[in-house]
Amino acid sequence: MYFLYSLVLTIGFLLLLPRFLWDLARKGKYAEGFRQRLGYLPDFDRQNKKIIWLHCVSVGETNAAKPLAKAMLENFPDYRLVVSTTTKTGQALAKTIFNEEAALVFYFPFDWTFIVRRVLRQIKPEAVLIMETELWFNFLREAKKQQAKVVLINGRLSEKSFKNYKLIGGLMKKVLSNLDLALMSDRADAERIVDLGCDPQRVFVTGNVKFDLAVDLNENGLNHELQKRFDFAPNRPLIIAASTHEPEERWILDAFRKLRQQTDSPRLMIAPRHPERFAKIAQLIKESGFTFAERSKNFAETDKQADIILLDSIGELRRVYQLATLVFVGGSLCPHGGQNVLEPIAAQRAVITGFYTMNFAAVVKTLLARDAIVQLPELEEQDAPEILAKVFFDLLLDNAKRESLAANAFAVLQENAGATAKIIGKLKQERW
Fold it and tell me: Are the C-beta atoms of residues 312 and 280 closer than 8 Å to each other?
């Protein structure tokens, strides 16, 4: 079964090879770290300590892992931390937020046995902590062969992923046997992973570490910088459209146009989820007819009056939520599954999300039960701008509703915090 998996992986790689080569020639998003993905890592200072390898996929997992990484080093001072990511955006953010904690930040290797072995021999991890559900089959098997403890952290298994994995149930049982612990976000995730064949004695519900988010007041220097540059003011409320995907920006721009027909005071900040789309969204905003500014460009006096600001930067979104009056969280108007609603909640802002929130199903369900979030119904393209504009307009007018949403959501966040401490407790029980 592992041979068939590796064969499928190889065929997929060969089919994508022309794209990789083209991207490498243009120094695109796959070019950076390609050598590392092949298993050639830079040297790092081990300081004669044992190594914990923390793997995050992208920006969301990297942000969520920050308090966990800090707690790990406080509770296991005899270890050094190395951090891997899969995406370019995750890599850039990890190098920023783990600059003090991590001895090395690198790209996760391609999941061929010979590459995985090369990386594991260099790092020699005592433990591998995998955020959420990055179940790379060869990697898990080889890590276990090298006698590293393998722990799934903040484990999440959506209904869709569960159904797909069930199609290869026999292989999944073997893969999951390599886990020493599966520390899951909620009971539904725990039940699914047990149903896939994970030993129930190794599965525990520790909660979602994303509830442990906090707005670090030491980070508000960026807020002051943006406040000065763009001259945000109470009489011009700011709507942030966060982590947007195709075609959400177009719908939001149409909604913003309808909103401005009712009131000319609001401003809009758009933060696309993927950096490779920044230029495309900049062009879309230009064609909209609104005045706009790009975060990445040098300051211009016109920035202070820009109707729309494009946040074409990495790692800054979480830190600008405090500037917002309203936050719409993207990836949710389309069947992507939704992005993280907890970061703007941690900033105590009213949050709107779309219908498709499968990635945060349990979180959104809890928030809805407490009147702590606005979730839109499933929208057709022709209806989306009108409905979005109405929700924006109603909430901008209703200060009490916005404050209630923000307060209720923040209370939910505080009540569900503590996953990091539970995870540390379980790891200590392993007697590292």
Answer: no
Token couple for 188? 């539904």
**Encoded amino acid at 263, one letter:** T
- The candidate with the shortest Cα–Cα distance to 355, out of 378, 339, 374, is 378
Q: What is the rounded distance in angstroms from the CA atom of residue 39 to the CA atom of residue 75?
A: 30
Q: What digits encode the pLDDT tens for the residues 26-75? A: 666 556 688 999 999 999 999 999 999 999 988 888 988 988 999 999 99
Which DSSP string do the residues of 273-313 spell out, in sequence order? S-GGGHHHHHHHHHHHT--EEETTSPP-GGGGG-SEEE---
Q: Under a CB-based contact definition with an 8 Å cutoff, are residues 137 and 170 in contact?
A: no
And the tokens for 93?
């953010």
Report the alpha-carbon distance of residue 287 to residue 296 in Å, rounded: 19
292 Cβ contact list (under 8 Å, min separation 6): 282, 285, 286, 306, 307, 308, 309, 310
What phi and psi, each to the nearest 5 degrees, are found at residue 279? -65, -40
Q: Which of helix, strand or coil describes residue 2?
A: helix
Residue type, 360: F
Distance CA 53, CA 49 (A): 13
- Which residues does residue 53 pair with via DSSP β-bridges, in sequence order? 82, 128
Model pTM?
0.83
